[in-house]
Design brief:
five-stranded antiparallel beta sheet, globular, 21 strands, eight-stranded parallel beta sheet, 17% strand
Length: 568
């Protein structure tokens, strides 16, 4: 899978755009849009999104009003986990394009004032990575085995896994190898799929290699890295048993011997030095699932990374009390380390928020469509709330179109590796990965160049009405709501990074907060209940997730499941 390894004609770095906001700390309040390359835009009609496709749609993202684009992995990969299994960290997978395409994409983005963040997957490689292949081929004595976690099995003949760890995708976290002479051999660790062997970060060659990979992409001109499984690289010494039958339940609630170990922070201190050597504030954002926001804050201490995803916020349901609590905890936890809080509602691993909020509270993996209308109403309101909070916000492609999760994909088209392994987490992540609709009345709705052409996952027929083309210019559309919200967010001095949140008294089931800046004040009202609520109008309406907010004299009616932005 390293076929374009030969593609070493690396171009010189694309300069940081002159027109990208030159202010220090651009990332402190950046709106960062996640592109899932498989599903964004397919330039050559093979049904798979690609880098030239993304490049051709950059003006759309500029006009939407985002500051940066995070690209999920597009590296050479056998795609056992949709590219999160990397065979060559310095090559573009031919299905996505070439390194020259990546260079052109970075250059164009910078020209348009957009920054580019790439995904880095340092916890594990693909089993097709050259190191892992050699480690297998050369047998137990291979020095390359120490770059991964190879261990003899337990039991009389080594027939049992070395410890009791389970894979996040289901089944044991160990797979037994076969020796070159075909006898049963040692086992290797994989916290995810068997095709994703975990690196041993105690091995200096691994650490060296990733420092070099960072520099490779920084030299290409990228503005930052989203670090995959940033909490996983260091394992507790001796790889101790967990001793619990239900490990998936513990994930994210407890410190595990393979997650959120204090040693990972040493790695980020080393990486921060590299990032700081480059001009233009290159950033690192941690995908760190930790038990508490307080522990997440450790990843963004001054000498570590810049941002970490706020998964506690993503996990909160549409409920005033729960939201206020998680907002307060998030802001309070980041204050001591002086890092911006981040906010996120959707990504490629969870059910889209338009579907989550149309269902009863049930976590981030939902398999039923629920009440679509309610879900969309709440999703629009939740987005306006998120964009009114201090810090940086992450958007996931298609949420600006109000896309629901596709909950009825036939089993035969599913590709999520955990779908095929029993008792694993998730398994239904394909539902949020369906290619997005751009235009036209026939699938793939402008995702690919030809009406009637392929798309790697089928799109629902209703998506014709949800396309970018169908929503553009319709003042009630979700797309126009996002465009307006991002424009107002840029223009309002009290929005973005600076001003604190001050909570004001508000009827039950509603939230009201104020943000004051020297140049003006802003108020956000949120009604999470199913009934309209009448309040004293706090100012002049800037934007309403319900389309409009009725104001009569001093009184305003907050529609059910709605958020309103006010200028004071
Ligand atoms: C991260 C990615 C997810 C992937 C996993 C293993 O959680 O977001 O998509 O499956 O890491 O790399
Ligand atoms: Ca393609």
């Amino acid at each position: 899978m390293t076929q374009n390894l030969a593609d070493t004609s690396r171009p010189a770095a694309a300069p940081i755009a002159a027109n990208a906001s030159a202010t220090r700390g651009w990332w402190r309040d950046a709106v960062i849009y996640q592109v899932y390359p498989r599903s964004f835009a397919d330039s050559n009609g093979d049904g798979m999104g690609d880098l030239p496709g993304i490049r051709s749609r950059l003006p759309y993202l500029r006009d939407l009003g985002v500051d940066a684009v995070w690209l999920s992995p597009f590296y050479a990969s056998p795609q056992a986990d949709a590219g999160y299994d990397v065979a060559d960290y310095r090559a573009v997978d031919p299905m996505f394009g070439t390194l020259l395409d990546a260079d052109a994409l970075i250059r164009d983005a910078h020209q348009l004032g957009l920054r580019i963040i790439v995904d880095l997957v340092p916890n594990h490689s693909s089993d097709q990575h050259e190191w892992f292949q050699r480690a297998l081929r050369e047998g137990p004595a291979s020095p390359l085995r120490d770059r991964y976690h190879f261990r003899p099995g337990k039991g009389e003949a080594g027939e049992l896994p070395p410890n009791d760890w389970e894979s996040i995708f289901g089944g044991p976290a160990w797979t037994r190898t076969e020796n070159p002479d075909s006898t049963p051999g040692d086992w290797y660790l994989h916290l995810f799929a068997p095709e994703q062997p975990d690196f041993n970060w105690e091995n200096a060659a691994v650490a060296d290699e990733f420092r070099s990979i960072l520099r490779f992409w920084l030299d290409m001109g990228v503005d930052g890295f989203r670090i995959d499984v940033a909490h996983g690289m260091v394992k507790a010494p001796g790889l101790p048993d967990i001793g619990s039958g239900d490990q998936l339940q513990l994930l994210g609630n407890d410190v595990m011997p393979f997650f959120d170990q204090d040693g990972v922070h040493e790695i980020y201190r080393a990486w921060r030095k590299i990032l700081d050597e480059y001009p233009g504030e290159r950033i690192g954002v941690a995908e760190a699932w930790t038990p508490t926001v307080q522990r997440t804050a450790n990843y963004v201490r001054a000498d570590e990374l810049h941002q970490a995803f706020n998964f506690q916020y993503l996990g909160a349901y549409w409920d005033a009390t729960a939201l206020r609590e998680v907002i307060d905890v998030s802001l309070d936890s980041m204050r001591p380390v002086d890092a911006p809080t981040t906010w996120v509602l959707s990504n490629h691993d969870v059910t889209r928020h338009a579907t989550r909020f149309g269902n009863l509270p049930g976590g981030t993996q939902i398999r039923t469509p629920g009440n679509r209308e309610q879900g969309l109403r709440r999703a629009r309101a939740a987005t306006l709330l998120m964009l009114a909070l201090p810090g940086s916000a992450y958007l996931y492609q298609g949420e600006e179109l109000g896309l629901p999760d596709v909950t009825d994909l036939p089993d035969e088209v599913r590709q999520d590796p955990s779908f095929f392994r029993k008792a694993g987490q998730d398994g239904y992540r394909d539902g949020c990965r369906v290619p997005i609709p751009w235009s036209g009345t026939e699938a793939p709705y402008g995702f690919g160049p030809t009406p009637g052409g392929p798309s790697w996952l089928p799109q629902p027929a209703e998506w014709a009405q949800l396309s970018v083309e169908a929503q553009t210019g319709d003042p009630n559309s979700t797309l126009e709501l996002y465009r307006s919200a991002l424009a107002v967010r840029r223009a309002q001095p009290a929005l973005g990074a600076g001003a604190e949140v001050t909570w004001l008294d508000s009827p039950e089931g509603t939230l009201t907060f104020r943000r004051d800046s020297a140049e003006g004040s802003f108020v956000c009202t949120v009604n999470t209940t199913a009934e309209p609520v009448t309040v004293i109008a706090p100012g002049t309406v800037l934007l309403s997730s319900a389309g409009s907010t009725e104001v009569t004299g001093a009184k305003a009616v907050l529609e059910a499941d709605s958020t309103t932005w006010w200028e004071v």
